[in-house]
Amino acid sequence: MNQNNNFKCHIWFTEYHNNNVALSVRVKDILYMDKSEFQEIEIIDTYDFGKVLILDNTFQTTERDEFIYHELISHVPLFTHPNPKEVLVIGGGDGGTVREVVKHKSVETVDFVELDGKVIEACKKYMPKLSCEIDNEKVNLIITDGIRYVAETDKKYDVIIVDCPDPVGPAKGLFEKEFYKNVFKCLKDDGIMVQQSESPLYNLDLIQNICRYLKDAGFKIIMPYTYPMPTYPSGFWSFTLASKKYNPLETDEERIKEALKDMETKYYDEEVHKGVFLASPKFLKEAVKKALE
Questions:
Q1: Mean pLDDT score, 245-269
Q2: InterPro entries annotated for this entry (predicted)?
């Protein structure tokens, strides 16, 4: 936290993206500060973005724009699969992804694997708009390392969602070749996975590596998709979807449209489902093509 002399008595939080770029928000109140064995955890209340979860001085999610991220990481793979019943969510201790997953009537069980139980407890207390479904009867909360979990479990899933932080510290292994091989192993024969894959502007090499590793793991369809994310570095972010069978561009739009009559979303709909892939920029498509050659 810091004070800016131009705004007397006003506290600002600043995340430094590099030596030349930063993002600051004005803080209304500091709700929670603690340190777990894995990371520093803060939840602040801000004037423009509502409550904000910060881990190790990095924006993780905000009440104002979280719906973009959580709807796209969840509904794109879950609607691409024709009948997802068993879902694994790795990471996402704020609960936003789980909240979206349980909206799907076909989903019977959600194994929710989170490394840091302190994040979950803090978000349940201070960010209930996101964490409201963590105690849903469909959700099985497992406090453990997601890397270890996929390496050791014998369970098979229809969809695996990797809602991970940046590839530093304990999360670094979520972006390595062995992890993707184990994710492939944990999926059923027609399974789908999706992972947070950073900014195409800042992290293009990382996205290429992810695509190579997914191909080596055995996935037949590998497709990054992009979207705006105001509080993440560059404001332009990506997920990468990998599928053993189903192509998201072949999903029946009418099926999505019908399902959304009973499902509240603010960003995702049947047009966005395909649009996030079709609107991927030329430089990203060319980089992915090169990585998969």
A1: 97
A2: PABS, PABS_CS, SAM-dependent_MTases_sf, Spermi_synthase, Spermidine_synt_N, Spermidine_synt_N_sf
Average model confidence (pLDDT) across the chain? 95
pLDDT digits (tens, 9 = 90+) for 28-37: 999 999 999 9
What's the burial of 234, exposed, middle or buried (CB within 10 Å: 0-12/13-18/19+)? middle
Say yes or no to pLDDT of 4 above 80. no
- Together in a domain, 211 and 258: yes
Residue 195 lies in domain: 66-292
Question: What pLDDT, on the 0 to 100 scale, is given for residue 170?
Answer: 80
Same domain, 141 and 50: no
Q: Do 20 and 84 belong together in one domain? A: no
Given 44, 61, 78, the domain boundary residue is 61
Beta strand spans in the chain (E): 2-3, 11-16, 22-35, 40-46, 50-55, 58-62, 86-91, 109-114, 139-143, 157-163, 187-196, 221-228, 236-243
pLDDT of residue 8: 46
Same domain, 38 and 137: no
Statement: residue 245 has pLDDT above 90: yes
Q: Which residues are identified as catalytic?
A: 163
The answer to whether 94 is a known ligand-binding residue is: yes
- At a CB cut-off of 8 Å and minimum separation 6, what does 110 contact? 87, 88, 89, 98, 101, 102, 136, 138, 139, 140
**Looking at the 3D structure of the chain, how many domains does it have?**
2
Of the ranges 157-161, 168-172, 185-189, which one carries the lowest mean pLDDT score? 168-172
Residue 170 annotated as binding site: yes
* Residue 163: alpha-carbon gap to chain centroid: 3
